[in-house]
């Protein structure tokens, strides 16, 4: 089965719909394309998505990535959480036409336990994770997210956004109050004795029309390690086992 070609025309209002800046605080702009518009990242996300039964996102914000993926994969069940009430309400309205989306107004650790308790067999399904519940002004739940996923799923595709890419300073990453979104932050929360594989970006070319290069990592283990990087981006990423 071939992954669908990224559809850059799928939109749910975009610039011509709701304006987040009018909702009481400055939220991110809703974009018609998700995942920073990074075409190489999107190809890898799509390759993983076609192998999965569900998508789990932490940190919906205004819903750009959620709506973009759910629109391109209508049979993929998508769960996402956003603790900020204004952002949640905005994203919920944007995703209202998508039957495969369920949104939760919760912080991510609570959200993961909520969904696991409500969805039969949740932790046994092939799952694509997009972890993006980190930024400025709060303690990040990334360590708890990683611990929950690796402790409960036998196989997973875990993308972490805004991640520090070793030896690649061209990629921006999140840093706040002593927290650096990178391997050192999560290493001790990875369940031991799993066959992890880490895939990082290694390109120099700017792949988005609206964002600078943002770092990311894909962590796979179990059955997910059989994921084949699309031929078109094999020279754009590096992949190696993690000990």
Which descriptors would you attach to this protein?
alpha/beta; two-stranded antiparallel sheet; 10 strands
Nutshell version of this structure?
It contains six helices and ten strands. It is α/β, with parallel strands linked by helices and 243 residues long. Strand 4 (127-131), helix 5 (142-152) and strand 5 form a beta-alpha-beta unit.
Mean pLDDT over all positions: 90
Share in helix: 10-25%
Determine the number of helices (DSSP H or I, runs of at least 4 residues): 6
Number of DSSP strands? 10
Shape call? globular
The CATH class is identified as Alpha Beta
Structural class estimated from helices and strands: alpha/beta
CATH superfamily: Vaccinia Virus protein VP39
Looking at the structure, the CATH topology is Rossmann fold
- Percentage of residues in DSSP E strands: 15-25%
Write structural notes for this entry.
There is one protein chain. This protein is an alpha/beta fold and 243 residues long. It has a single domain (33-241), classed as Rossmann fold (3-Layer(aba) Sandwich), CATH 3.40.50.150. The chain is 23% helix and 19% strand. The protein has six helices and ten strands. An eight-stranded mixed beta sheet has the order 3-2-1-4-5-9-8-10, sandwiched between helices. Strands 6-7 form a two-stranded antiparallel sheet. Strand 2, helix 3 and strand 3 (101-104) form a beta-alpha-beta unit. The longest helix has 11 residues, at 39-49. Residues 7-25 have low confidence and may be disordered.
Topology:
Blueprint: H1 39-49, E1 54-58, H2 64-72, E2 77-81, H3 85-94, E3 101-104, H4 108-118, E4 127-131, H5 142-152, E5 156-161, E6 175-176, E7 179-180, H6 183-186, E8 197-201, E9 216-221, E10 237-241
Parallel strand pairs: 1-2, 1-4, 2-3, 4-5
Antiparallel strand pairs: 5-9, 6-7, 8-9, 8-10
